[in-house]
Specification:
two-stranded antiparallel ribbon; mainly alpha; globular; single chain
């Protein structure tokens, strides 16, 4: 699928236009979660189960129709909202515009920028897949993931890692640990790293709160995983009869190098744009049907789109071809998350209602008379992130904890840490826990690597390797 950058900019402008056709006022027609039954959550559960099940049982159908499935679940919510006499057009319009303008569009713009810019960087060179080299590649990816996104870091380094190990007999475990660290845990330190953390940033969580809070848990998990991987890879490496010299392509060793390095400057621009929206407070906003759009956030999104456009225009086409770059992954994410962000509206409203809402049981399971039960936040967020998707799961529990970023960064610091760590860390448990997981699996299989099935990944790798580490994290931090 080919879509040029002018089309993408046009589509995003169309998304904004409907809201500006309505006047603003100070009395926003909020959806009252206390008045909603649990049945309103069915479309949200439906789309998440569709994402989990269809790629496994009907992959060809899903590949062609995931956008239609997402639309089906969105419409299955919107029609009842519109015809309900207690809700109607005004409340439905407000809620859709609110989640679209303040969360969905900024979320997709950031992913688009990171995906496009990182796709313009190509790591070239001949590497030998020794345990030390593999550890270095995975560690570099783990560090980069927090600053160029788990998707960007994974797409940059997965093909060099596969090339380095092309003569290895045992290499599945290397791809699995790459998924653990680069596609998930490495994105722990900034809102740029993993989608749930960026959603927290959009909700008001400080950029560097994430860095300081997540640093020690991340270091702990990374150290354990790197040690386990090095011992495992060293064991397998000794069992193989490998050449002592570097693998050659066309009779010549390729020197290490970086093509499209201009995009690294654009990545710095992405970081600066996000930081700008976090620190610059001009106290100017534009109201779109009761929804306030702050100037700093609008500026950030425009800058991100401009950086994306520059990357697309300046980067030589041969670099993207060498990276096998296509628009499909970002189109897939955009269509699926449009449905997710719409169908999650009632769930968030019900959770905000607390003990008065239909999901009071969840509230009670993660809190008691003394306050939040942080280890329950960690495990419930993590388990749902493993089998659904960590971005909407983070939103659900963020709102369950009250949804006030000031309180969560202060008095309930450990609660927000538990939610953040659960969403990011346990997205590594399955292929569907985080978007890059499936992308890495697909690229590896196209290179001839026999990756484990969904349950094989879970039973052979995630449960025996990750679960004990997460238990230790829970005991130490929560």
């Amino acid at each position: 699928m080919y879509i040029n950058m002018k089309q993408i900019l046009f589509y995003y402008s169309i998304l904004f236009l409907p809201g500006f056709a309505f006047p603003g006022s100070q009395d926003a027609p909020h959806l009252s979660g206390a008045d909603l039954s649990i049945l309103w959550v069915i479309p949200f559960i439906g789309i998440l189960l569709s994402i989990a099940i269809f790629p496994l049982v009907a992959p060809h159908f899903w590949h062609k129709n995931f956008g239609k499935v997402s639309l089906f679940w969105a419409v299955s919510l919107l029609i009842p909202l519109l015809i309900n006499h207690n809700i109607g057009v005004s409340i439905t319009l407000y809620e859709v515009l609110h989640v679209g303008l303040l969360e969905y569009i900024p979320f997709i713009i950031l992913l688009l920028a990171l995906f496009t810019i990182s796709g313009g960087v190509q790591l070239k060179g001949t590497l030998v897949g020794t345990p030390v080299i593999n550890v270095i590649i995975i560690l570099i990816g783990t560090i980069l993931a927090s600053w160029m996104g788990t998707t960007g870091a994974a797409m940059l380094l997965i093909r060099p890692l596969i090339r380095a190990n092309k003569d290895r007999k045992y290499k599945v475990h290397t791809i699995v640990f790459f998924i653990f660290l680069v596609a998930n845990i490495g994105g722990s330190l900034t809102p740029l790293g993993d989608p749930p953390l960026f959603l927290g940033f959009l909700k008001g969580v400080s950029f560097f709160w994430t860095t300081s809070a997540m640093l020690m848990p991340m270091i702990m998990v990374v150290c354990y995983l790197i040690i386990i991987y090095f011992l495992m890879d060293s064991y397998y490496y000794k069992k193989e009869d490998l050449p002592l010299t570097s693998p050659q392509e066309d009779g010549k060793d390729q020197k290490l190098g970086l093509e499209g390095s201009f995009n690294l400057l654009l990545l710095l621009g992405v970081i600066s744009s996000v930081l700008l929206s976090g620190f610059w407070r001009p106290h100017i906003h534009y109201t779109v049907y009761h929804v306030p759009i702050e100037l700093q956030n609008l500026t950030r999104d425009i800058l991100l789109l401009l950086l994306t456009f520059v990357s697309w225009k300046v980067t030589p086409r041969k670099i993207r071809q060498a990276n096998e770059y296509t628009w499909f992954p970002i189109v897939e994410v955009a269509k699926l998350f449009a449905g997710i962000f719409i169908t999650i509206i009632p769930a968030i409203a019900i959770l905000k209602a607390g003990a008065s809402g239909a999901l009071a049981g969840i509230i009670q399971s993660v809190s008691n008379d003394s306050g939040p039960v942080n280890y329950m936040y960690f495990w419930l967020t993590g388990i749902l992130s493993s089998f659904l998707d960590n971005a909407p799961t983070y939103l659900v529990f963020f709102n369950t904890a009250g949804g006030d970023p000031v309180m969560l960064m202060g008095k309930y610091y450990d609660t927000l840490l538990a939610i953040s760590a659960g969403a990011v860390f346990m997205g590594a448990n399955t292929y569907i826990g985080n978007a890059p997981n499936f992308m890495v699996k697909s690229i590896s299989e196209s290179a001839g690597i026999d990756m484990p099935s969904f349950f094989g990944f879970l039973v052979k790798y995630s449960l025996p390797i990750l679960t004990p580490i997460f238990i230790l994290v829970s005991l130490v931090f929560f």
